[in-house]
Structures are given as structure tokens and as C-alpha cells.
Amino acid sequence: MNEKSEIRNHISKILVVGAGIGGQSVAIGLKKAGFEVDIVEIHKEFNVYGVGIIQQANALRALDAIDVADEAMRRGSPYGKVKLCLAHGVQIGEAGTPPIGRFPSHNGISRRILHDVLFEEAQKVGLKYRMGVTVETIDNQPDVANVTFSDGTSGSYDIVIAADGVNSKVRKLIFGEFKTSYVGLSVWRYAFKRPAGLDTGYIFFNKKHKLGVIPMTADLCYIFVNSAEGDNPMIPEDQLVDKLKAYMSAYPIPMVQELIPQVTDAKLVNYRTLETLKMPAPWYKNRVVVLGDAAHTTIPQLGSGAALAIEDAVVLIEELQKEGSVEEIFERYMKRRHDRCKMVVEVSETLGAWELLEYTDQPLPEGANMGMLMGKTGMALTQEI
Ligand SMILES: Cc1cc2nc3c(=O)[nH]c(=O)nc-3n(C[C@H](O)[C@H](O)[C@H](O)COP(=O)(O)OP(=O)(O)OC[C@H]3O[C@@H](n4cnc5c(N)ncnc54)[C@H](O)[C@@H]3O)c2cc1C
């Protein structure tokens, strides 16, 4: 990102709603490019949960555009392709985005650390966060967005960027109600001390669920389990520890077995159902534009949702520095992003649908090959954005 890049259009004052991965990324890049940026975050304090996030090579390439890829790799754990294995450990394949230039296939990182890396970069460029604040109303005119905030203040902006996640309030205010779809799967996550032999990411396949062991830092890793919990997927808190331990017990590999005693605290079991959402085009109206999960929420079967949010940010930053009307800029942004995001959401849905069939003892469609589909999509994600 060129700090001194000349702003050739008439946009100067920008509001970013949501200080998650996408919101912080876009705000940092825009601030560096010389725009006046306000960022509001609904939570009074950040409370980022401690499990990890997989950053594939394309996510690192996008983070590099806002100058934080090296710090993310330094504080995370770069690794190669993910080894795909049967439940007892025999390797049957590998998956992941191929390396892109100096960026490895993957960087595992704690979500908290990624958040810190972004936040620290934001401080360096003088970005001021308004915590515990959200938008109340947006009067979205063709030439300006007049916004009132929950703290009683108001402001006029050249554009408003909705980076407020899957349940985006801005999206609802401007575009109406969109509902997520539950895909029938759940994910369990827990952070662990990193076992000595963990040399890369692993996914182990059982007939009823799958388990991943993902490096997070030099000393930490996390485990995820994907399962199908049936029609009533809400699990009472007092069952979380025992259920996660039972899932892990089904993988007779020392690396997994030795971690089981560390699962002790239900509050640290991050359990959630998996939801998906594709906002139909256009992702913009007058002065409001949507990015990240607010526009496209993917289930994590490709570990790429955050990568898409960061790439959205980079493309929007680039387009905002080019000439054109706001509508032309937003249209170019959406054109560059739409099909790629749709591909990730839909391939992830397909992978999830195949998992669900397996976990519920139903036959897979002819030719279904998870490793091959993951490999093909990983390759597609290396293409320039
Ligand atoms: C189980 C699971 C595992 C995943 N694993 C991976 C992975 O390994 N790799 C990967 O790349 N992606 C992964 N993802 C996806 C990734 O977490 C998301 O795609 C990413 O967080 C989206 O970033 P975002 O900034 O769009 O939204 P968010 O990260 O959700 O950020 C939205 C921000 O907006 C704030 N906010 C919400 N409402 C308002 C409001 N009204 N006003 C102001 N602020 C508001 C929120 O508090 C939050 O800070 C995973 C997702 C899930 C569910």
C-alpha cells in the first residue's frame, strides 16, 4: 500500500462499522492511503476467543498489502500443506493453497494474536476506535450517508463500509433481512499446549466426524472437531467437556490422545453450529457497501472466510484510490470479489454436505472427492485478486 497514494476521486470521509478482521483491515489500509476514517465497534472491549484461525497463502498475501503479514507469521506458526489422514493416522493425501511467493501454504495463528497484530498496526497509523458504539440510523442518499450513532452523536460520511459480520445491522438497515442457513454441522474447538511432534496441520477422518490439529503459535495448537448433532444441536454447557473428550477418544493417535486430559474447562470449549449466507448482488446501495461475512458467510471447511474478508478489504482500498463515481467504484469492487467469494461459500457448502451425508450413514454422490475439491479450490485461490 502506497502511503502517499493520491486520492483522485471525491471521497474523503469514511465510516467503517465493525472492528473485526475485515473492518480493521480495510480501516488500516484506507488510513494509510490518506482517507479520514472513523471505525465503530459495538463491543465496549474486544473479547476475541482464544482458539486459532487458519490463514492460507492468499490470506497472507492480502495481509501483506496492509503490511502485517510478516508480523502475523512471526507471532503465528507458518506451516505447509495439511496432511489428510484416516482416524488411526495413515496419511491419504494433503490439501491447502500452494505457497504464493514467500508466503507458505498456511499460517496458523491465535485469533487474539491476529486481532492484536491488526490493532497494533491501526495504532501506528493513528486509527481511533469508538468502542461500545453502533449505528442507529443511516440516511443513505446518493451523495452522502448521514449516520446517527448509539452514543447520541451523528456524522456525515462520503461512504459507509459495513464490516459488522454475519448478522450485520447495516446490511439489515439498508438492504433488508437476510437469513443464514444452518448446514446441519457443528464445530468444536479447544486450544492446547502444542505437542512436540506437530510439524504441520492435520485433519483426521472418522466415519462420524473429523478432527483437525492446527498449529497456532510455537507453543500452542488448537483442535477442531466437525460433527453432526442432529435436529437439536444446542449442547448444554455441562456436557461440552465430556462430549469433546469422547470425540477425541475416537482418534487413537498419540498426538490426539495425549491432549485429552487438557480438556477441563467447559468455558474454553468453543462450540457452535455452522451457518452460511450469500448476500445477493449488488453489495452496495448509494453510499453504503458491504464486505466480509456481512456479504458472504462461509462455513470453515476451506478455512477461508477471514481470508475473503481481508481480500475484500484490499480490493476495496485499491478501488477507492482509482477514479470513478462511487457507484463505479463499488461495482468494480463487487465484480472483482463476487465470483471468488461465491466459489468459496459454495465449495465449502458442498464439502459440508458431503460430510453430513457421511456422518449420517448416507451414500456420497458419485465422484465426490473431498481432497481433490479442496486442492482444486486451494489452487484457484492462488490467482491474483
Ligand atoms: C468455526 C469457524 C471457524 C473459522 N475458521 C476460519 C479459518 O480457519 N480461517 C479463515 O480464514 N476463516 C475462518 N472462519 C471465518 C472467519 O472467522 C470470518 O470469515 C471472519 O471473522 C469474518 O470477518 P469479518 O470482519 O467480516 O466479521 P467478524 O470477524 O464477525 O467481525 C465483525 C465485527 O463487527 C462487530 N459488530 C457486529 N455488529 C456490529 C454493529 N451493529 N455495530 C458495530 N460493530 C458491530 C463485531 O463485534 C465484530 O468485531 C471461521 C468461521 C467459523 C464460524
Summarize the entry for a quick read.
This protein has 385 residues and is of the alpha+beta class. Helix content is 33%, strand content 27%. The site of flavin-adenine dinucleotide has 31 residues, from α1, β2, β3 and α8.
What small molecules does this complex bind?
Answer: flavin-adenine dinucleotide
Alpha plus pi helix count: 10
CATH architectural arrangement of the domain at 13-77 and 110-180 and 276-355: 3-Layer(bba) Sandwich
Biggest sheet: strands side by side, in what order? 6-5-14-15-16-13-17-20
Instruction: Return the string of H and E elements.
Output: EHEEHHEEEEHEEEEEHEEEEHHEEEEHHH
Annotation keywords:
10 helices, monooxygenase activity, alpha+beta, globular, disordered N terminus, single chain, FAD/NAD(P)-binding domain, eight-stranded mixed β-sheet, FAD/NAD-bd_sf, binds flavin-adenine dinucleotide, 385 residues, six-stranded mixed β-sheet
Task: Explain the overall architecture.
With 385 residues, the chain is of the alpha+beta class. It has a domain at 13-77 and 110-180 and 276-355: FAD/NAD(P)-binding domain (3-Layer(bba) Sandwich), CATH 3.50.50.60. The chain is built from ten helices and 20 strands. It has helices at 21-32, 57-65, 69-75, 111-124, 169-175, 237-249, 254-257, 305-320, 326-359, 370-380; strands at residues 13-17, 36-41, 52-56, 77-79, 82-86, 91-95, 106-110, 129-131, 135-140, 145-149, 154-157, 159-162, 181-193, 202-205, 209-215, 220-227, 270-278, 284-285, 288-290, 296-297. The strands form four sheets. It has an eight-stranded mixed β-sheet, with helices on both faces. It has a six-stranded mixed β-sheet with strand order 8-2-1-12-19-18, sandwiched between helices. It has a three-stranded antiparallel β-sheet with strand order 3-7-4. Helix 2 crosses helix 3 (69-75), helix 8 packs antiparallel against helix 9 (326-359) and helix 9 packs antiparallel against helix 10. The longest helix has 34 residues, at 326-359. It starts with 12 loop residues before the first strand and ends in a 5-residue tail after the last helix. Mean pLDDT is 95; it is low at 1-7. The chain binds flavin-adenine dinucleotide (FAD). Flavin-adenine dinucleotide is lined by residues 17-23, 40-43, 53-54, 59, 134, 163-165, 169, 187, 272, 292-294, 300, 303-307, 309. InterPro entries: FAD-bd, FAD-dep_Monooxygenase_BioMet, FAD/NAD-bd_sf. It comes from Emticicia aquatilis.
